[in-house]
Batch of 2 targets.
Target 1
Amino acid sequence: MSSVIDVPVGPQHPALKEPLNITCYVDGEQVVGAKLRIGYNHRGVEKAGEYQTYIQNLYIAERICGICGIVHAFDLAQATEHIIGKEIPRRADYLRTIGLELNRVHSHLLWLGVAAHEIGFDTLFMYVWRDREAVMDVIEEFTGNRVTYALMTIGGVRRDLPQEKAEKMLRVMDVLEEKVKKYKEMCLNERTIRMRCDGVGILREEDAIALCAVGPTTRASNVPFDVRADDPHAAYDEIPFKVITYDTCDVTARILVRIDETLESINIIREAVKKMPSGPIRVRLPRAVPAGEGVGRTEAPRGEVIHYLRSAGGERPFRWKVRAPTLANLLSIPVMLTSKGDYVVYIADVPIAFASIDPCLSCTDRAVKFVDVSSGKSWVWTFSQIKRMYWKDKPYWRERP
Amino acid sequence: MIRELIDILGTLLFPGFLFFAALGLFFEWIDRKFYAKLQNRVGPLYTGPWGLLQPLADFVKLMAKEDIVPEGVATPIFSSIPVFALALSLFATLFLPVCGPQGIVSFPGDVIVLAVVLTFLVILVFLAGLSSASRYPEVGSERAVLQLLGYEIPLVASVLGAAAVTIGLGGSLSIEGIVSAQQNWWGILGIQALGFAIFLLAAQAELERVPFDIPEAETEIVAGWATEYSGKKLAFLRLARDVELAFLCGLGATLFLGGPWPGPLVPGLGGVIASTILFVIKSIVVLLLLTVIRAAMSRLRIDQMVNFAWKYLVPLSIFQLLLAVVTPTMVRLLTL
């Protein structure tokens, strides 16, 4: 007897805090296929950016993601500085690195809690989130805010890190390291966690490369791809760190990659505080940016984030393009969720397999597809088509007021 | 006349329906509060002293909420199941010896009736899911039945183990007999320890709590078989679940911890009070053990659960049943 029914997961579903639809084709308890649909949360951030100045855009960018917002602000600042072509003070690089790494610690701990909740282990969830508060407090002391940090600015950072705050930060990092090591122990030894995560959500090495997965997802598939190491920016060129990889390619590997990266981040923060040179924390750059193109990229907690910026001269960007890591990782979801040969996916595996890429859909949704509801026809408009249809009488390169 | 009146009052008020409804809500509070303590949270806090009235407040709130019956459900079944579930779990509580050595209803073989009632409760769950005409409840009810296949035999075997020890010692196959046999001798300290452990795991599965909350796995299938229920019906289902929790804790206390003993030795009204207090305290011990299990594990998958049940739980439960049957006989033969 084989009767395949489709079980919709999302866009409203307790397992997914994200607006996304996964249609699972289910035979009994086995998932035989999965189809993704995104686009429930298009916010028009890029378009909004075209009407604001570069400085104002930093704060919009910070709100692209509620968890790794600092990464977007950093990328945009980096892209703008790229167009202007000015170096920023070395101390600012170090402060940016500390900000990015603190953000990674908090994001990975948050994810660990969510993953524990997805497999029904609420106790671990509560403990991890309790300890995450420590790093949130440090971030607040450092930047002034818990979530949207407003640390980055074009040409440097906005707040310095005085010695006493740095020392307090290091003390908290020591405590946190202990706790994170304990959680690693727990995840390795607790049998029910291993039962739920071992061999689940397999993404083999060749698939990870072919589907362009990024971040911890690809590193858990034994691909040592990390923008911090491959294309050093900020102060990563002067701070030694390990690129963590695991080769079991399953959810356990993704948990361990993230926990080990948290420990690595703590080391980076220590190193950065130690090596930080003195000097100014920002340079004044002109408000008007010359015409040109700039790219900002860094390793967000979830993977590589790229910001592309095109300036036609003036105070506002002509085009701003954001590629969030979830978009790159989404493609591997149908592979993880399709039973094949010996690899069997159960309905119960869907939430944890999906959560294992640490999805953030509100950062991701950029594209809009048009659907004619009456006929069901759908199409996508390209940039040149829109230009032809709506900008017929307007000069293409004209700077908007 | 007076006799009948007392019986009716006993069934309705104490130690019958009202007492167990209140006990169920109280146990839910203990469960939540202790679970929260284990997780370094505060738990219910604001409604009543130490949040004691929170479960009642939840119940009242749900009763006042809009009751939605979705289109396409089998309405007669869908609407009657909450009532049946509550009635059935309250019925089961009548067998428990709360304030004396025997419950309101007591006859030889009532242990078997209890095992049947527990199975009926799962069949209600199955019907609730199927009648909901929705995908998540359907998956949830399938899982509930699969899970029943896993834990029912261990549950019944552990209950029968307690009965077998009693019979072996010359008692009868009734709850009263089992309780009375434990006056001087607690099996849990010896051959019944294994039976008690199996009972705890099976009770956890019957109550659909972590690690066996598979039929209502929140992050997987929304609320499982109960997804489509709302308002009064959900309130009844939740109350039924609370009463079932109190019932299973009470059953554990009765079968393995000696129920109200030595309370009934006190004469008169004092005996009733002492018995009740002892019964509740022993039930709470079982409840706390169940809560610890809930806090210390993550949810299993349905295939893992059935696998675990048939590989370990069923053989172990049959082994402990054999142990329970053979040991008292051996003891008697040796002492003869």
Target 2
Amino acid sequence: MTVPGNEAELLTRVVSGDREAFDAVMRVHQDRVFSVCLRILGDRERALDATQDTFLTVFRKAGQFQGRSAVGTWIYRIAVNTCYDQLRRAQRRPSESLPDHVDLSDPSAEEAIESAAVRPEIELALAQLPPDFRNAVILSDLEGLPLPEIAEIIGVPIGTIKSRVFRGRRLLAKHLGNQNDQ
Amino acid sequence: MHEHPLDLIAALADGSLSDEAEARALIETCQECRDEHRAQTEVIGWLAAAPAAEMTDLEKASLHRDLWTELRNEPTRSPATPWWQRLSYVAAGLLVMVGLVGVLNNGMLGGGAESRATTTAAAQAFDEAPTEEVPFVAQGNDDLEAAPEMTTETTAAAEGAGEESLPVPFEELADEARANQADRVATQGTDGDTEECLARVGLDEHLVVDEVELDRTYLLVMPVDSEAEPIVTFVVMPECEIVYVG
């Protein structure tokens, strides 16, 4: 995915309500926003909701973009914060159903899991990581974002991100190793 | 293991080191470092092999539809007043001041017809200065994004402005609906389609108080609590588009 050089200009047009400009920004970033949200939230429906909320925020706050980072970094930061908010809300509603990928009794879910190869065990292992570690690993090793950009997205120093990624991988290896042993 | 070796070994595993000599020397001499390197490399490989998470075309289409529905239904800022319009206010203000000075001079010093003419011109200029707030008249769903916030202040400020150019006497009908709302709210029901339409244009907390057949069919819709918020919204059917708020 390449970020067009005039993306900041597109965002300026979004401020004045230009629908085409907003659609263009969405086309570039919607897949990665969805992917990040799906990895963090672990549930497709919630990820779709979070993707929608992210772009609503992008539209409403386009005027606040100051060009200090790439437009994509700014948008992914909004996406990550939106997911955090969703997780916080979900924690306040403990009776809410679990994400579909752990419902192994559902034949259609099982089928979807089988077609997704190694994904279920990785997602299960990811789900066991502390949130800070998990999100750093998701952005780095699943989404392939460079560490300085992740630091900007999450809003912590790059050294902290490095440490979270490395330690997250170490825990993941431990979890995945345990799963394989069973 | 200390933080520094972990940093080095993990960076070696993900290929981000510019000089790998120190890290390679570490894994050659230290079993713990070798284990760490293997663990990090394995995890990177597993994650890299994970299938991409993508939205289906249907999900993308739904996302766009829902997003725009949401954005259409929210009030947006009024566009900024253009510079030439602001200039006309300033000019009108200056003329009024000059006129007032003229009147005062006339009163004190017995000025003549010339100063009276200035005052009249000033008053005329002020009258002709455009009114900033007008009621929202949409020309279709795309225009709804430019709708100003629906407030009674907006409506009050708009009275009499631009009414001649409207194809339908919206304001009269709105007044009538407001006057008769108590009777009509009780009798007018909403069928399933209408209810769905109102929800789509963000009027789900509203009731249809009247339906009029003019050049097209218009639903007159008011908030459930219309005493607190006596705003009448006109929805053209079957297109289900808001065309006037008054």
